[in-house]
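If you are new to this repository, start here. Below is one unmodified record pulled from the training split, so you can see the exact layout before writing a loader.
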Amino acid sequence: MDETQPPGANSSRRVLTASLVGTAVEFYDFYIYATAASLVFGSLFFPSKSASLQQMAAFASLGVAFLARPIGAAVFGHFGDRVGRKSTLVASLMLMGGSTLAIAFLPTYAMAGWLAPVLLCLLRFGQGFGLGGEWGGAALLAVENAPPGWRARFGMFPQLGAPVGFIAANGLFLILGVILTPQQFMAWGWRLPFLGSAALVGVGLWVRLKLTETPAFAAAIAHEAPPAVPLGELLRDHWRVTLCGTLAAICCFAVYYLMTAFALGYGVNTLGYSRTAMLSVQLGAILFMAAGIVAAGYWADASSPRRVLMAGCAMTVGVGALLPAMLGSGSLLVIFAFLALGLLVMGFVYGPLGAFLPDLFPARVRYTGASAAFNIGGILGGGLAPMIAQALAERGGLAPVGLYLAVAAALSFGGLWALRPKAA
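And here is the target side for that same chain:
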């Protein structure tokens, strides 16, 4: 495939590596925060006599990034649609990596009082702002370079960054849990994954700086001047598909954060499993998410991304129905089976989004549109999901948490249904 490309064109291998590595770095950064919020941030940064309130405050800080994501989507989308995909992707990676690295040096509440949680939330905002521009650019990089008939399979590579980043983050926390005592981990060990982000960001930058612009963007600016305000054009001419695309993205975020951040905190703090045991279970289960993404990519090219996403939403309702019995079973093996099932299904509501959302928009506003839909969907589906699930579980057990997941799936199904092709 590469041999037929003109000089200076992006090779398929380079494109897929850049889209995968970049999002893997971003999700590593994003998830080490979620893991630390589940395990240590409550007691280190949010003092309270109630351990439950500490946990909810830590999960609330997790949601700060989701408020920043649509702002980042608008800002990076503006430059991505006006200046180009490559430089915008590099800037988003540097911002999120820098914010993550800075968290490693933060003082705790015992050291700096209320300044500590304020700085933590500020850097969490920086993480979200950077990720707001990352996903859309990585998806466009893949699908705008895809050969005919391969858009969903190319689009699944940025999606595979999520399980890869999760494995790196979770695996590192698991190793630290084995080699450090709980006291060492609480005192300084939790900072090491944030320090490690610097090396990963360096790899991502090295790959991305070798890229050229995508053919679709080059053709769009050659045909006509880029929009002066891409967000304004998006809201004026493409508001309906933006709304439906946003709804379509809700389900994957709800599944992901309930299966990871909420399940980890619930397993350790409520069910009494060790941190190492729960991290091991999640590390094995995330492999099923990768398998689901790959299967969904092939299925979506054979049928359509929309059809696969709708099937995934229907499967998610079933996962919600099983959640109370399996997550609350008291058996670590059953919990593993449930998380594996949930994350496998997530592959079908997440993997096809890499091709589905960009295809909703013309090239001139595609970066802004895909980023806005994905990140606003992240607020609605995942921003407060662990905190809401924690509150529901405390008041009504796990059954309301399963219903919450089913409602998220129904909202996404509705958005996808509204985008049904018009009859000829």
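Two things worth knowing about this chain: The radius of gyration is 20 Å. The chain has 19 helices and no strands.
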